[in-house]
Amino acid sequence: MDLPALTDDVGYLLSRTSGITARAANTALAGYGLRVRQYSVLSLAADAPDGLSQRELAGVLGLDPSQVVLLVDELADAGLVLRRPCPGDRRARLVVATDEGRRVLGGARRQAHDGVRHQLRALSDREQETLRDLLARVVRSAGGVSVGR
Amino acid sequence: MDLPALTDDVGYLLSRTSGITARAANTALAGYGLRVRQYSVLSLAADAPDGLSQRELAGVLGLDPSQVVLLVDELADAGLVLRRPCPGDRRARLVVATDEGRRVLGGARRQAHDGVRHQLRALSDREQETLRDLLARVVRSAGGVSVGR
DNA sequence: TATTGTTATACTCTATAACTATA
DNA sequence: TATAGTTATAGAGTATAACAATA
Protein backbone atom coordinates (compact mmCIF):
# COMPACT_ATOMS: atom_id res chain seq x y z
CA MET A 1 0.00 0.00 0.00
CA ASP A 2 1.22 3.45 -0.91
CA LEU A 3 1.82 6.15 1.67
CA PRO A 4 0.24 9.57 1.19
CA ALA A 5 2.23 12.66 0.26
CA LEU A 6 2.72 15.04 3.16
CA THR A 7 -0.12 17.35 2.24
CA ASP A 8 -2.57 14.41 2.28
CA ASP A 9 -1.30 13.03 5.56
CA VAL A 10 -3.73 13.11 8.50
CA GLY A 11 -1.00 13.94 11.00
CA TYR A 12 0.19 16.90 8.99
CA LEU A 13 -3.36 18.11 8.40
CA LEU A 14 -4.17 17.82 12.11
CA SER A 15 -1.12 19.87 12.99
CA ARG A 16 -1.94 22.57 10.43
CA THR A 17 -5.61 22.77 11.37
CA SER A 18 -4.85 22.86 15.06
CA GLY A 19 -2.30 25.64 14.50
CA ILE A 20 -4.80 27.66 12.48
CA THR A 21 -7.61 27.37 15.01
CA ALA A 22 -5.35 27.88 18.04
CA ARG A 23 -4.00 31.09 16.51
CA ALA A 24 -7.53 32.31 15.88
CA ALA A 25 -8.56 31.43 19.43
CA ASN A 26 -5.53 33.20 20.92
CA THR A 27 -6.30 36.31 18.87
CA ALA A 28 -9.92 36.20 20.02
CA LEU A 29 -8.89 35.74 23.66
CA ALA A 30 -6.20 38.43 23.68
CA GLY A 31 -8.72 41.10 24.68
CA TYR A 32 -9.47 39.14 27.84
CA GLY A 33 -5.82 38.72 28.78
CA LEU A 34 -6.12 34.98 28.18
CA ARG A 35 -4.46 32.39 26.00
CA VAL A 36 -5.99 29.05 25.09
CA ARG A 37 -4.30 27.08 27.86
CA GLN A 38 -5.34 29.47 30.62
CA TYR A 39 -8.77 29.69 29.04
CA SER A 40 -9.18 25.92 29.08
CA VAL A 41 -8.37 25.75 32.80
CA LEU A 42 -10.77 28.57 33.58
CA SER A 43 -13.45 26.96 31.48
CA LEU A 44 -13.21 23.61 33.27
CA ALA A 45 -13.12 25.25 36.68
CA ALA A 46 -16.19 27.32 35.91
CA ASP A 47 -18.17 24.33 34.67
CA ALA A 48 -17.45 22.22 37.76
CA PRO A 49 -19.80 23.26 40.58
CA ASP A 50 -17.23 22.64 43.32
CA GLY A 51 -14.12 23.11 41.23
CA LEU A 52 -11.51 20.48 40.30
CA SER A 53 -8.23 19.42 41.80
CA GLN A 54 -5.15 20.32 39.79
CA ARG A 55 -4.59 16.61 39.23
CA GLU A 56 -8.00 16.33 37.65
CA LEU A 57 -7.33 19.35 35.49
CA ALA A 58 -4.05 17.83 34.32
CA GLY A 59 -5.79 14.55 33.50
CA VAL A 60 -8.59 16.13 31.46
CA LEU A 61 -6.30 18.52 29.61
CA GLY A 62 -3.53 16.01 28.96
CA LEU A 63 -1.00 18.25 30.67
CA ASP A 64 1.65 17.52 33.25
CA PRO A 65 0.57 18.61 36.74
CA SER A 66 3.57 20.94 36.93
CA GLN A 67 2.20 22.93 34.00
CA VAL A 68 -1.18 23.23 35.63
CA VAL A 69 0.42 24.88 38.65
CA LEU A 70 1.70 27.74 36.51
CA LEU A 71 -1.56 28.17 34.61
CA VAL A 72 -3.55 28.30 37.84
CA ASP A 73 -1.01 30.76 39.29
CA GLU A 74 -1.63 33.15 36.42
CA LEU A 75 -5.40 32.83 36.63
CA ALA A 76 -5.31 33.31 40.40
CA ASP A 77 -3.09 36.40 40.04
CA ALA A 78 -5.66 37.79 37.63
CA GLY A 79 -8.43 37.07 40.13
CA LEU A 80 -10.25 34.67 37.83
CA VAL A 81 -9.87 31.54 39.96
CA LEU A 82 -8.87 30.72 43.51
CA ARG A 83 -7.47 27.66 45.26
CA ARG A 84 -9.65 26.22 48.02
CA PRO A 85 -8.55 23.58 50.47
CA CYS A 86 -10.05 20.22 49.56
CA PRO A 87 -12.24 18.84 52.34
CA GLY A 88 -11.11 15.30 53.03
CA ASP A 89 -7.64 15.53 51.48
CA ARG A 90 -5.26 18.12 52.85
CA ARG A 91 -2.79 17.51 50.02
CA ALA A 92 -5.21 18.56 47.29
CA ARG A 93 -6.53 22.01 46.43
CA LEU A 94 -9.70 22.69 44.49
CA VAL A 95 -9.50 25.24 41.70
CA VAL A 96 -12.70 27.29 41.67
CA ALA A 97 -13.74 30.09 39.30
CA THR A 98 -14.48 33.46 40.91
CA ASP A 99 -17.47 35.59 39.94
CA GLU A 100 -15.10 37.73 37.92
CA GLY A 101 -13.74 34.54 36.31
CA ARG A 102 -17.22 33.48 35.26
CA ARG A 103 -17.96 36.94 33.94
CA VAL A 104 -14.77 37.05 31.85
CA LEU A 105 -15.37 33.52 30.65
CA GLY A 106 -18.78 34.45 29.31
CA GLY A 107 -17.37 36.84 26.73
CA ALA A 108 -14.17 34.89 26.13
CA ARG A 109 -16.00 31.68 25.32
CA ARG A 110 -18.18 33.41 22.77
CA GLN A 111 -15.25 35.18 21.10
CA ALA A 112 -13.05 32.09 20.99
CA HIS A 113 -15.85 29.98 19.61
CA ASP A 114 -16.62 32.48 16.86
CA GLY A 115 -12.94 32.85 15.97
CA VAL A 116 -12.48 29.10 15.59
CA ARG A 117 -15.75 28.73 13.77
CA HIS A 118 -14.65 31.30 11.22
CA GLN A 119 -11.58 29.22 10.41
CA LEU A 120 -13.83 26.20 9.88
CA ARG A 121 -16.17 28.08 7.57
CA ALA A 122 -15.36 25.76 4.65
CA LEU A 123 -17.33 23.05 6.49
CA SER A 124 -21.09 22.95 6.90
CA ASP A 125 -22.59 22.78 10.40
CA ARG A 126 -23.20 19.10 9.83
CA GLU A 127 -19.58 18.54 8.80
CA GLN A 128 -18.25 20.47 11.78
CA GLU A 129 -20.28 18.15 13.99
CA THR A 130 -18.85 15.12 12.23
CA LEU A 131 -15.34 16.49 12.71
CA ARG A 132 -15.99 17.10 16.39
CA ASP A 133 -17.33 13.58 16.93
CA LEU A 134 -14.42 11.91 15.15
CA LEU A 135 -11.89 13.92 17.16
CA ALA A 136 -13.71 13.24 20.41
CA ARG A 137 -13.47 9.51 19.81
CA VAL A 138 -9.73 9.75 19.14
CA VAL A 139 -9.12 11.78 22.28
CA ARG A 140 -11.21 9.46 24.44
CA SER A 141 -9.48 6.35 23.12
CA ALA A 142 -5.90 7.57 23.01
CA GLY A 143 -5.83 10.63 25.24
CA GLY A 144 -6.30 9.15 28.64
CA VAL A 145 -3.64 6.50 28.26
CA SER A 146 -0.21 8.06 28.56
CA VAL A 147 -0.96 11.06 30.69
CA GLY A 148 0.87 10.02 33.83
CA ARG A 149 4.54 9.21 34.06
CA MET B 1 -27.66 29.16 21.04
CA ASP B 2 -25.66 27.42 23.72
CA LEU B 3 -21.91 27.10 23.59
CA PRO B 4 -20.30 23.69 24.08
CA ALA B 5 -18.39 22.73 27.21
CA LEU B 6 -14.64 22.67 26.70
CA THR B 7 -14.41 18.94 26.16
CA ASP B 8 -16.94 19.14 23.31
CA ASP B 9 -15.27 22.11 21.69
CA VAL B 10 -13.77 21.53 18.24
CA GLY B 11 -10.80 23.80 18.92
CA TYR B 12 -9.92 21.99 22.12
CA LEU B 13 -10.36 18.58 20.46
CA LEU B 14 -8.18 19.61 17.53
CA SER B 15 -5.45 20.72 19.88
CA ARG B 16 -5.60 17.51 21.91
CA THR B 17 -5.69 15.25 18.86
CA SER B 18 -2.88 17.11 17.16
CA GLY B 19 -0.78 16.85 20.31
CA ILE B 20 -1.40 13.13 20.58
CA THR B 21 -0.51 12.38 16.97
CA ALA B 22 2.47 14.74 16.88
CA ARG B 23 3.91 13.05 19.97
CA ALA B 24 3.45 9.64 18.36
CA ALA B 25 5.07 10.86 15.15
CA ASN B 26 8.04 12.34 17.00
CA THR B 27 8.55 9.09 18.89
CA ALA B 28 8.38 7.15 15.64
CA LEU B 29 10.84 9.52 13.94
CA ALA B 30 13.34 9.65 16.81
CA GLY B 31 15.23 6.62 15.47
CA TYR B 32 15.93 8.57 12.27
CA GLY B 33 17.16 11.66 14.06
CA LEU B 34 14.14 13.59 12.83
CA ARG B 35 11.26 15.48 14.34
CA VAL B 36 8.00 16.24 12.57
CA ARG B 37 8.99 19.69 11.36
CA GLN B 38 12.27 18.54 9.84
CA TYR B 39 10.52 15.48 8.48
CA SER B 40 7.89 17.59 6.75
CA VAL B 41 10.55 19.68 4.99
CA LEU B 42 12.44 16.56 3.90
CA SER B 43 9.23 14.97 2.69
CA LEU B 44 8.27 17.93 0.52
CA ALA B 45 11.78 18.27 -0.88
CA ALA B 46 11.92 14.58 -1.76
CA ASP B 47 8.55 14.66 -3.52
CA ALA B 48 9.45 17.66 -5.69
CA PRO B 49 11.56 16.49 -8.65
CA ASP B 50 13.68 19.66 -8.75
CA GLY B 51 13.25 20.68 -5.12
CA LEU B 52 11.47 23.75 -3.78
CA SER B 53 12.57 27.22 -2.78
CA GLN B 54 12.52 27.97 0.92
CA ARG B 55 9.76 30.46 0.23
CA GLU B 56 7.65 27.72 -1.30
CA LEU B 57 8.35 25.46 1.66
CA ALA B 58 7.28 28.18 4.06
CA GLY B 59 4.08 28.75 2.09
CA VAL B 60 3.07 25.09 1.99
CA LEU B 61 3.94 24.42 5.62
CA GLY B 62 2.45 27.64 6.98
CA LEU B 63 5.76 28.59 8.57
CA ASP B 64 7.68 31.83 8.59
CA PRO B 65 10.59 31.74 6.11
CA SER B 66 13.02 32.39 8.96
CA GLN B 67 12.00 29.11 10.56
CA VAL B 68 12.54 27.23 7.32
CA VAL B 69 16.14 28.43 7.23
CA LEU B 70 16.89 26.66 10.51
CA LEU B 71 15.08 23.47 9.56
CA VAL B 72 16.95 23.27 6.24
CA ASP B 73 20.22 24.00 8.07
CA GLU B 74 19.69 20.96 10.28
CA LEU B 75 18.72 18.69 7.41
CA ALA B 76 21.70 19.90 5.36
CA ASP B 77 24.07 19.31 8.28
CA ALA B 78 22.72 15.76 8.49
CA GLY B 79 23.31 15.30 4.76
CA LEU B 80 19.63 14.71 4.00
CA VAL B 81 19.09 17.75 1.77
CA LEU B 82 21.26 20.30 -0.01
CA ARG B 83 20.74 23.84 -1.25
CA ARG B 84 21.18 24.31 -4.98
CA PRO B 85 21.35 27.68 -6.71
CA CYS B 86 18.08 28.39 -8.47
CA PRO B 87 18.59 28.84 -12.22
CA GLY B 88 16.91 32.08 -13.22
CA ASP B 89 16.80 33.69 -9.76
CA ARG B 90 20.08 34.20 -7.97
CA ARG B 91 18.31 35.19 -4.73
CA ALA B 92 16.54 31.85 -4.35
CA ARG B 93 17.97 28.46 -3.44
CA LEU B 94 16.30 25.16 -4.21
CA VAL B 95 16.13 22.63 -1.39
CA VAL B 96 16.72 19.17 -2.84
CA ALA B 97 16.75 15.79 -1.08
CA THR B 98 19.97 13.79 -1.31
CA ASP B 99 20.00 10.05 -2.01
CA GLU B 100 20.62 9.53 1.69
CA GLY B 101 17.67 11.83 2.43
CA ARG B 102 15.39 9.76 0.23
CA ARG B 103 16.63 6.55 1.80
CA VAL B 104 16.02 7.84 5.34
CA LEU B 105 12.66 9.22 4.34
CA GLY B 106 11.53 5.81 3.13
CA GLY B 107 11.69 4.27 6.57
CA ALA B 108 10.73 7.43 8.43
CA ARG B 109 7.55 7.93 6.45
CA ARG B 110 6.42 4.37 7.14
CA GLN B 111 7.16 4.60 10.86
CA ALA B 112 5.52 8.01 11.29
CA HIS B 113 2.46 6.91 9.39
CA ASP B 114 2.05 3.76 11.49
CA GLY B 115 2.58 5.68 14.73
CA VAL B 116 -0.12 8.20 13.89
CA ARG B 117 -2.43 5.54 12.57
CA HIS B 118 -2.18 3.70 15.85
CA GLN B 119 -3.42 6.77 17.72
CA LEU B 120 -6.39 6.94 15.34
CA ARG B 121 -7.27 3.29 15.83
CA ALA B 122 -10.67 4.19 17.32
CA LEU B 123 -11.71 5.27 13.81
CA SER B 124 -12.40 2.92 10.91
CA ASP B 125 -10.44 3.36 7.66
CA ARG B 126 -13.47 5.04 6.19
CA GLU B 127 -13.70 7.45 9.12
CA GLN B 128 -10.01 8.27 8.96
CA GLU B 129 -10.53 9.20 5.31
CA THR B 130 -13.46 11.41 6.25
CA LEU B 131 -11.35 13.10 8.91
CA ARG B 132 -8.55 13.68 6.43
CA ASP B 133 -10.88 15.18 3.83
CA LEU B 134 -12.55 17.53 6.30
CA LEU B 135 -9.18 18.74 7.59
CA ALA B 136 -7.82 19.16 4.09
CA ARG B 137 -10.69 21.46 3.21
CA VAL B 138 -10.10 23.58 6.30
CA VAL B 139 -6.40 23.93 5.57
CA ARG B 140 -6.98 24.78 1.92
CA SER B 141 -9.60 27.40 2.75
CA ALA B 142 -7.98 29.03 5.77
CA GLY B 143 -4.35 28.03 5.62
CA GLY B 144 -3.12 29.92 2.61
CA VAL B 145 -4.56 33.23 3.73
CA SER B 146 -2.47 34.72 6.49
CA VAL B 147 0.89 33.08 5.85
CA GLY B 148 2.83 36.16 4.77
CA ARG B 149 3.43 39.23 6.90
C1' DT C 1 10.42 49.16 -4.61
C1' DA C 2 9.59 44.30 -3.65
C1' DT C 3 11.26 39.64 -2.77
C1' DT C 4 14.57 35.73 -1.00
C1' DG C 5 17.15 34.25 2.37
C1' DT C 6 19.24 35.20 6.67
C1' DT C 7 20.31 36.58 11.62
C1' DA C 8 18.66 37.79 16.01
C1' DT C 9 15.55 37.96 19.89
C1' DA C 10 11.75 37.06 22.92
C1' DC C 11 8.04 34.46 24.28
C1' DT C 12 5.18 30.22 24.67
C1' DC C 13 4.80 25.36 24.94
C1' DT C 14 6.54 20.77 26.17
C1' DA C 15 9.12 17.40 28.75
C1' DT C 16 11.51 15.78 32.91
C1' DA C 17 13.53 15.53 37.33
C1' DA C 18 13.44 16.34 42.08
C1' DC C 19 11.43 17.94 46.31
C1' DT C 20 7.48 18.63 50.37
C1' DA C 21 3.53 17.48 52.61
C1' DT C 22 0.22 14.60 53.13
C1' DA C 23 -2.24 9.87 52.45
C1' DT D 1 4.85 3.44 49.54
C1' DA D 2 2.12 6.26 46.75
C1' DT D 3 -0.17 10.65 45.58
C1' DA D 4 -1.01 16.09 45.21
C1' DG D 5 1.21 19.95 44.58
C1' DT D 6 5.35 22.58 43.66
C1' DT D 7 9.94 24.30 41.89
C1' DA D 8 13.43 24.27 38.49
C1' DT D 9 15.48 23.68 34.01
C1' DA D 10 16.16 22.67 29.24
C1' DG D 11 14.60 22.06 24.72
C1' DA D 12 11.24 22.77 20.98
C1' DG D 13 7.87 25.67 18.74
C1' DT D 14 6.05 30.37 17.48
C1' DA D 15 6.16 35.30 16.43
C1' DT D 16 8.59 39.62 14.90
C1' DA D 17 11.93 42.79 13.42
C1' DA D 18 15.68 44.01 10.73
C1' DC D 19 19.27 43.39 7.18
C1' DA D 20 22.04 42.05 2.61
C1' DA D 21 21.68 40.45 -1.99
C1' DT D 22 19.04 40.34 -5.91
C1' DA D 23 14.84 41.15 -8.81
From TrEMBL, chains A, B:
Coiled-coil intervals, chain numbering: none
Residue ranges crossing the lipid bilayer per the database entry: none
InterPro entries per the UniProt record, alphabetical: HTH_MarR-typ, MarR/SlyA-like, WH-like_DNA-bd_sf, WH_DNA-bd_sf
Domain of life assignment: Bacteria
Chain ranges of the HTH marR-type domain: 7-140
Signal peptide: none
Protein name: MarR family transcriptional regulator
Species name: Pseudonocardia eucalypti
